[in-house]
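Can anyone check this?
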Amino acid sequence: MKVLKRAVFTIALLGLAGTVFAGGGQQAGQAGGKTTVKIGDNWGETHPMAAALDNVFKKQIEDKSGGRITVEVYHSGTLGNEGDLWQGVRNGTLEAAVVGTPMNQEFPTMLISDWPFLYRDIAHATKVWTGPIADEVNASFHAKFPETYIIGWGPNSARTFTSNKKLTSVDDFKGQKFRMPGNPIHVGIAENLGASAQVIPLGELYSALQTGVVDGQDNGMVTVLSQGFQEVQKYLYETNHIVATLEIVINAKFLESLPVADQQIIRDAAKAASAQAWADYVKSLDADRATLVAAGVTVTACSTDDQARIQTAIKPLTDKLLADNAAWAPALIEKVKAVQ
């Protein structure tokens, strides 16, 4: 009888242990064999990167996982601003997010995403961030932030300047106030052009433009439209001074808790979404320009001469960037420029 009781106790104990170990790898996004991936961004749903989350990332993951993985997409800062999203992914309270470079002070290599006049054109930028250079930066990123992975690089936009005051040439920058993202490259560009810079979260920018806290801002045409800035801005100057990127980041512990096949499904979907976003962004440029003109915005192309003047004006910034980031920037820039 004692032997029988001991055997029953042992079987029960093994069963309990099996239950504990089976559930030990589950994160907040997993329950009952199902997984939910919550992913947030700060963009309107018409932005190519946001649209790619809906139409490619979500659909591909759910289809290829046979419904084991559900993706919930939250646009327009619903889950917080860019800094909030980044910190949420880092600490595991959010599975994934699309962010720019809020971590560039901790990891200066991410400044490459905002390096002025780095690419020949949008096609060149697309090849860079869907190829081996992206993989190389991803590995360095994970080494710096082992709690996260970058699993895709998509387009933010080719950045332009808008303003409520006349802005049709380089000379018009002087004395104007521009909202710029909180990194030294954007702030330095505005200041080198004779303007002043103020850092304001994207979610507060419409109001700041509407009330005159700032005269203008720099973002791509696609962002101008997705945020409705054409309603509170009169001029757009197509400087295309930066082709900025957006990164899909995911919590490492969450991703690694999934079966290898499901990890690959998510990684493949992120790459597919990024590629689709680049393609859609290129297609959107002419239509976006026409929409802005129809809305009453004066759109001015930046001439070759003015673009050269801008590069000359911001040379103090680019020289300092190279000097301050000599350990990585010159070599990485050469690799980028060598991409054909």
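Reply from J.R.: I decoded it. Residues 260-294 form the longest helix (35 residues).
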